[in-house]
Amino acid sequence: MGFTKVTSKVVLAEVRPGAEVLARRGAMLATTGRVAFSPVAGGPGGGAYGGGIASALARGMQGEAVPLMVAEGTGTVHYGFRGHHVTVIDLDGSAPLSVEADRLLAHDASMSSSVVFLGQQGGLRGAVRGAVTGQGLFTTQLSGRGSVAVLSHGGTFALRVDGSRQVVVDPQAYVAHVGNLRLDVATALSWRDAVGRGSGEGVQLKVSGEGTVYVQASEEKL
After folding, report:
1. Where is coiled-coil annotated (predicted)?
2. CA trace torsion 171, 172, 173, 179 (10° rounding)
């Protein structure tokens, strides 16, 4: 199952038995056919789609719990949320997607999800990165084959990362990444910053490894 972009802010999903869709509650805009919606506890991967009550409580404590609903039956569903732009990311099963739970609009219900401590992605540097980007100390990882619809301000662009070049991202513009990437917070503060005459880009996110990082066209958080 994949999502079809209808506009830059709306995607269309086909729903059928064996191809259910998980989406954040309140994201359904229109539907055709015979499609039913049921709440799923515990955020990404919760309830009958992995996790259960204990996982739901843990996700809530970690700030990665976004109320979800599952679409079941046969038909189509249009999804969008608060006029935010939507980016569709297709995963081939070879690498997970790391993204904040509140940026998730919808994804294939067959995909597995987990909450990851950012300290596992670079130790203390990972935790510092979470604080700088506003992610907190945890992030959500989606794994498997399928499509994920991600929210952003102004849309996103993808940057391929490999060992041949350095990629630097504004921490506030970072949205998500796929692959084995290392994200380190770096500072480039000077005396000009101290006197208020700096460029305003003193804190940066240096991305290295193999994968793709998605960057939004704005420094505004959702």
Report:
1. none
2. 40
The answer to whether residue 58 is domain-embedded is yes
* Residue type, position 25, single letter: R
Helix, strand, or coil (residue 112): strand
Q: Which two tokens stand for residue 144?
A: 């498997």
Q: Would you say residue 38 lies in a domain?
A: yes
- Return the CATH number at 55: 3.60.160.10
Q: Is residue 173 part of a domain?
A: yes
CB atoms within 10 A of CB 9: 18
Structural domain includes residue 222 = no
Q: Which of 214, 137, 220 is nearest to 169 (CA)?
A: 214
pLDDT single digits (tens) 9-67: 999 999 999 999 999 999 999 999 999 999 986 544 444 454 444 454 445 545 556 78
pTM: 0.80
In what helix (H) or strand (E) does residue 60 lie, and over which residues does it extend? helix 52-61
Residue type, 104: L
Interatomic CA distance for residues 17 and 77, integer angstroms: 14
